[in-house]
Amino acid sequence: MSQSLIAALQNPALYPHPVDSFQLIETHISWVLLTGTYAYKIKKPVNFGFLDFTSLPSREFFCGEELRLNQRLTEGLYLEVLPITGSAEAPQMGGDGPVIEYALKMRQFPNSQLLSTLQANGELTTAQIDDMAKQIAEFHLSTPQVPTAHAQGTPDAVMAPVLQNFEQIRPLISDKADLLQLDALQAWAETSFERLKGLFAQRKADGFIRECHGDIHLGNATVIDGKVVIFDCIEFNEPFRFTDVYADISFLVMDLEDRGLKCLARRLISQYLELTGDYQGLDLLNFYKAYRALVRAKVALFSQPANADALQRASTLKQYRNYANLAESYSAIPSRFMAITHGVSAVGKSHVAMRLVEALGAIRLRSDVERKRLFATDGELYGAEASAATYARLHQLADSALRAGFPVVIDATYLKRDQRDAAARVAEACGVPFLILDCNAPKAVIAQWLAQRQAQNVDPSDATMDVIDAQQASREALDADEILRSKRVETNISGDMDSLISNIRQHFPGL
After folding, report:
1. Which residues, in sequence order, are bridge partners of residue 227?
2. Which class is domain 115-329?
């Protein structure tokens, strides 16, 4: 019935709107009819184990779930579930009589606006990445927690699909080097799991297992009316969706890195962390990225047709190895350092710190953000006690990120010697090099940048020119010992930043 129904639905008279033409997109689980203005998605009556659409009630239910779940992140894209009545040869959209099928009606958009297409054309922007980070952060903070009594999110539930990857991949590869690599990846995953088992349990207890999206990557995001829209979440399998928020964001980070977009991947996770404050979970990032990479490696092997010729087999193996190598990169011993900025407000410290994020994979910690997170309900943000608490919080987060294996840059003024000494002690305790980024710019440039950010009203800083003048008057200059471990950066000269990045890379080739 299905094929005849899909053919019969390609009749403009069945639709209450003009139809430009019909285009049919078929996947292994659905048909999508494109009509120009709207798209109609019909689920195939299939059972793949991880989903079961074989009964009409199940297809109705999952159409409803797809509508409900995707409306969380979209507006005006997923519209309604329509019953199809009549017969396979003479169907009616939303007509009377017994229902023979269901269709999910959606607003149609051009494939040219998919972020994966924009990226392939070199048109993906940092603004779009920042938009995604903001949307995902807000979504993760608001989407319902999975009840603690639910099995999903327990350490064993986290590890089960990780082990399943290895079990399913191993029979499909035969090259000795590939098998040795897979054994090493499994050993790393198992030792990482034992090390992180307590954290997995704590994340479950603390409510970080949430009803997530489950499939965030550039192919499931598009631009509509100038705004990034994330769509096509997992509706058919709760375990794929009931997961740690880090597993959800890790898929997109891995997808960006797979596309060679390390700078954007680093920017995304840094922006996401600043918005959520969820630095506790950083230890899980590489574990989940490796898992997601191996899922794609497995899918590449599964997708090879049984009668594949030598060229197809070689192409599949190349795709598998690319993802396996990406997973292996997440198990590498990290290069770490700790840097702090030093300078008055609006001198360009945040820009300097973001360059270290994008170029070197550092986690950026911002005093303006953490201060407001600490004192969200308290009007006193800038007294001595508030500043002391803010720097203590920054140093606590830095210690956590360093121990999770990430380099750190703290974006704060650090105008007092005792603040800088406290930061240096964190680096020393973690056994990592310490660097002071001494940020400078002409006063006229600082005034110009301050005016720009006040006009844009998107920066978390509340500093004014009077505040900056007071900072200049009261700052404690770097002494001789501090100068030895500092790098002066003229923030209005781009070459200075390039020189800084190059210098750090020479000391840490793995970054």
Report:
1. 224
2. alpha beta
pTM: 0.91
What is the per-residue pLDDT for 1? 55
Distance CA 308, CA 59 (A): 33
206, 246 Cβ separation under 8 angstroms: no
For the chain, residues classed under CATH 3.90.1200.10 are 115-329
CB of 362 within 8 A of CB of 432? no
Q: How far is CA 225 from CA 35, 110, 125, 221, 487, in A?
A: 20, 12, 16, 13, 44
Q: With contact defined as beta carbons under 8 Å apart, do 287 and 189 qualify?
A: yes
Determine the 3-state secondary structure of 54 from DSSP.
coil
Over residues 391-402, the pLDDT tens digits come to: 999 999 999 999
Average pLDDT over residues 201-223: 97
Query: Looking at the domain that runs over 338-507, which CATH code has it been given?
Result: 3.40.50.300
Q: What is the per-residue pLDDT for 228?
A: 97
Q: With a cut of 90, say whether residue 290 has pLDDT above it.
A: yes
Beta strands in 422-505 (DSSP E): 434-440, 486-490
Dihedral pair phi/psi, residue 487, rounded to 5°: -130, 120
Task: Give the integer Cα–Cα distance in Å for 99 and 125.
Answer: 45
Q: Are strands 363-366 and 408-411 parallel, antiparallel or unpaired?
A: parallel
d(CA 224, CA 205): 38
In the block, tokens 């003229």 appear at: 490
* Cα–Cα distance, 106 to 115 (Å, whole number): 19
| H runs (alpha helix) in 243-330 | 245-258, 262-276, 285-302, 310-329
pLDDT band for position 304 (50/70/90)? confident
Ranges in the chain annotated CATH 3.40.50.300: 338-507
The three-state secondary structure class of 317 is: helix
pLDDT given at position 135: 97
